[in-house]
Design brief:
eight-stranded parallel β-barrel, alpha/beta, about 30% helix
């Protein structure tokens, strides 16, 4: 749906996405495949438009969390391979096969369910085997005394009727963190993963067509982990220290406008809870951006938005739909003027640090009522709002 409301919007720079993709490709080399992670609506950027761009750029695979996310891509013309990282009920296996969607297999029980459903449907389900090497979340446990049992379970899954075990993968827990302990842990995970894959291939007498384990941190910090395919997440969107080190560009810029300006005398209380009191005559602006849009309430009285005349601090508690900013000493900022919430002039990393979180959470929290405007080379190519009207 399109909207003509100039309220709060996110500008999604597809040129920056293309730039980041090409820079990561330069880093990994031409022989390594690229899986674009577009789960959670492409980290709030809009999965369909991001996936469409990656498909045009020549990416090899996409990763989503659920069958609903995969079907959204298929219904919108995305034909490239898609891997579901999370669980899919066995009742949906026929749809996976029909729409050529790859499914992660994380344990023996799921392997048997998927095999049974695929045979009943009369088709073959492409799967990637997940190995738990230390994330302690999903996957076949193969650590220590569980190694031989894990190998047997994976081999059995690969040999089950109706399943085509195209790939094997794992996920690193601390590849994006510094320190010798994190480095040792990541290297241990990588060695265990390769030991498992090698043992399974020897037992089966054939190789997996794809081994992949390099998330954002590993893509940058551990080139030996690139293997057959990398799957950078937040790196692709240009946020975080790893993106900064590679000179990548933030894909999303969040903007809003000043809707009202009022002059208050000293000793005026502002917003819920009366947590801020003006200490002089103050020029206070109201912006239509609150916690229902993704502006974390913990940033009240702490964060600053960026105006044409510099930073404007948030005053008082952030409300559901609005926030107040201090425009004292900024006479050139008026009603209707654009302010940047985060973007090139107000880095999201600083916002995340102040909120005690990571950029992932900030962009994923952008709500569906925030208008997405897609840009390419400075021109608007598409816009949408996800509200149903």
């Amino acid at each position: 749906m399109k909207s003509t409301l100039r309220r709060t919007w996110a500008e999604i720079d597809l040129s920056a996405l293309s730039y980041n993709y090409n820079k990561i490709r330069e880093l990994t080399g031409g022989d390594v495949k690229f899986m674009g992670v577009v789960k959670a609506d492409a980290y709030g950027h809009g999965a369909v438009m991001i996936a469409r761009t990656l498909q045009e750029l020549g990416a090899d695979y996409l990763a989503v969390s659920s069958i609903d996310e995969a079907m959204e891509l298929r219904y919108n013309g995305i034909t490239m391979p898609v891997l579901i990282l999370g669980h899919t009920p066995m009742e949906q296996v026929d749809r996976l096969i029909c729409f050529n969607i790859t499914q992660a297999v994380t344990c023996e029980a799921k392997a048997r369910e998927y095999s049974s459903a695929a045979v009943e449907y009369g088709g073959t389900l492409k799967v990637h085997i997940k190995v738990d090497t230390g994330m302690s979340r999903l996957g076949y446990i193969c650590e220590g005394d569980y190694f031989e049992h894990g190998i047997r379970g994976i081999v059995d899954a690969c040999n089950m009727p109706g399943l085509d075990a195209e790939g094997i993968f794992t996920h690193f827990a601390v590849s994006d963190e510094d320190g010798e302990e994190c480095s040792r842990y990541t290297e241990h995970q990588f060695k265990l993963f390769n030991d498992v894959a090698d043992a399974v291939e020897r037992e089966r007498g054939c190789n997996f067509r794809l081994r992949h384990c390099a998330n954002t941190g590993a893509t940058v910090n551990y080139p030996q982990t690139h293997l057959d395919m990398v799957r950078p997440g937040i790196l692709l969107y240009g946020y975080g220290e790893h993106a900064k080190a590679l000179g990548l560009r933030p894909v999303m810029t969040m903007k809003t406008t000043v809707s009202t300006i009022k002059i208050y005398p000293a000793d005026t209380k502002i917003s819920y809870g009366l947590t801020y009191t003006t200490d002089e005559t103050a020029r206070i602006g109201v912006i239509p951006y609150g916690y229902a849009d993704g502006f974390f309430r913990c940033l009240s009285n702490r964060y600053s938005v960026m105006t044409s005349e510099g930073a404007a601090p948030v005053r008082g508690r952030i409300c559901m739909d609005m926030s107040m900013i201090d425009l004292t000493g900024k006479p050139g900022v008026g009603v209707g003027d654009v302010v940047e919430i985060f973007g090139p002039d107000n880095p999201i990393e600083e916002m995340a640090k102040m909120a005690g979180t990571i950029p992932y959470e900030i962009v994923c929290a952008v709500s569906k009522r925030v208008h997405r405007i897609y840009m390419s080379d400075g021109n608007v190519v598409y816009s949408e709002v996800m509200l149903r009207l």
